[in-house]
Amino acid sequence: NTADAPSAPGFRYMPETGEEVFSSFLGVPVQRLGEALGVLVVQSKDAREYSADEIYGLEVVAMVLAEMTELGAFVGEGGGMGQRHSQPSMLRGTVAQEGVAEGHIWLHEPRVVVANPIADDPHHELIRLNEAVEELRVGVDKMLTLASADKEQAEVLEAYRMFANSKGWMRRMEEDISRGLSAEAAVEKEQSLARARMGKAGDNYLRERLADLDDLSNRLLRILTGQGQDTGAEMPADPILVARNIGPAELLDYGRSLKGIVLEAGSVGSHAAIVARALAIPLIVHADRATLESLNGDHVLVDGEQGIVHLRPDDTVVSAFRDKMAMQAAAAERYVSIRDKPAKTLCGDVVSLHMNAGLMADLPSLEGSGAEGVGLFRTELQFLVRNKMPKRSELSALYTRVLDAAQGKPVVFRTLDIGSDKVLPYMKPNDEPNPALGWRAIRVGLDKPGVMLMQLQALIRAANGRPLTIMFPFVAQFEEYTDARALMDKAMERERSLGHVLPERVDVGAMLETPSLAFAPQKFFEQVGFLSIGGNDLKQFFFAADRENERVRRRYDSLNVSFLSFLERIVERCDTTQTKLSFCGEDAGRPVEALCLAAIGLRTLSMRPASIGPVKSLLRRSNLTEVRKVIADARHRGEMNVRPAIMEYLKKQG
Ligand code: PEP
Ligand code: MG
Fold this sequence. Notes:
By secondary structure, this protein is of the alpha/beta class.
């Protein structure tokens, strides 16, 4: 809103467009649910600022326009906007679980359609709004009573109730109605404003509260329009779930019926992503506008390799995509055929392949993938998907199920690795400037040994006489290992005095994920039961590049000569002291990286179950002596990274 547009920055007069010379300018966005569709502008020759009433009037017109666009009211020139849902569309996001899938859209929360943006009888609309808000409040109160035993859930609902009783929210909607909007349109206008603010809010807390308001508006719209969650639509046989975001419990409810998942929000490390990974369902997060662009039943292709979603794809895209799927299916069949065979290379070396796990849903893969055991059981996942601290008895029951499912195959339980990106919803968050370098993992365990002791006791009880393997995360120096080890001895002693059966054998090791540990005194290597390289963290600290930061993460390659040399040094030290060594970071599951790790001497790799087939397949066709020579030659030539040389070699091998 300006009286003097020509002096505004960015102003440019273009006489060739036939535009008139004007002085004042008022522009309001035409937006629907936070998405900008265009701008509605009025101008005048006389220099004046527009009044609040005029701005409001134009906003209402813009809002009605946006609604009509959604309903497909525009044909011809403006039709492009309205026909959005009938055209192919490609969305880009971030891959949180690899895989490709074809299916049909299933909206987790079907969109409420407001068919009557303008109303003739404001009095009637006000009554409708008030009745609906009353129903909403009663509903929220009821949920609160039900949740009162659960403190965390009750806190969230308290925030809901605060919004539902907010006078400002109500007043703004009543004003909109008195100016001619229907009750639904008034709710949606508020929702739209909240969404626009949500996109801009830098503060996490504020964003979450705006998301609460958004959710509340949806509930209110459903009451007003009578469109419940159940729209009568039937879930397609090959559903690809589309949602703004989804919680881990809701995702587990859908289970393996889903072919793929596309989220507008979410993150690679979110709980939903953890569950999707466990269920091996391709997942794309940060797919902007996914819920706006999708309609229930739309044909969709999810490319969880490139991070692309093809909505309503045309025939050429479909056929290229199906070729890709067929190639993957053929490869999958090859992997099944070698499932029970060892990962024995052409030169006779045998590499032991294990899987990483963390949820019960992971365990069926132990059989299906051909893994020799669980090389890394991330115990924190069980803590992360709950909304309160699990009890010792619950944990022990769970670990018992894990050991039962493993049927004698080894399971390496890693004690709680919380902090950094893994924040427990029921623990007071630490406001640390650098959480990845902060109070996390074993540091928390040693400073507050209560939880760690509880977990160790639960593990001993679950073993119930069977062998038990425990690994401490994020050990940075020798003392931390000895202190943690002492806690384990204490837990054993306690269990013994309580009359519980002790494990027949206890193996206690550490993760090597800080560079400092690679330079620990020889005594450490002699004393530690075994070591497992946590390549994800080790790499982040080696290159000083945040593993969660897409911008810097991709800059550094694991096949960089400096990193490989560092890993070789660790292998050598372990060889000297005969310390058992494995590698359990993501790189273990990438065939080319796995091949190089095997070439430099690693004989145990632990990875996502889906990676075992591809890694084994490549190892079985490779000669490590040759790979070692390729690496040595590349180094000799002064190359910084051995990847090009390895790729060249693999290409030659066919
Ligand atoms: C690692 O750091 O490589 C690792 C396996 O642990 P996480 O990814 O759980 O930190
Ligand atoms: Mg780690």
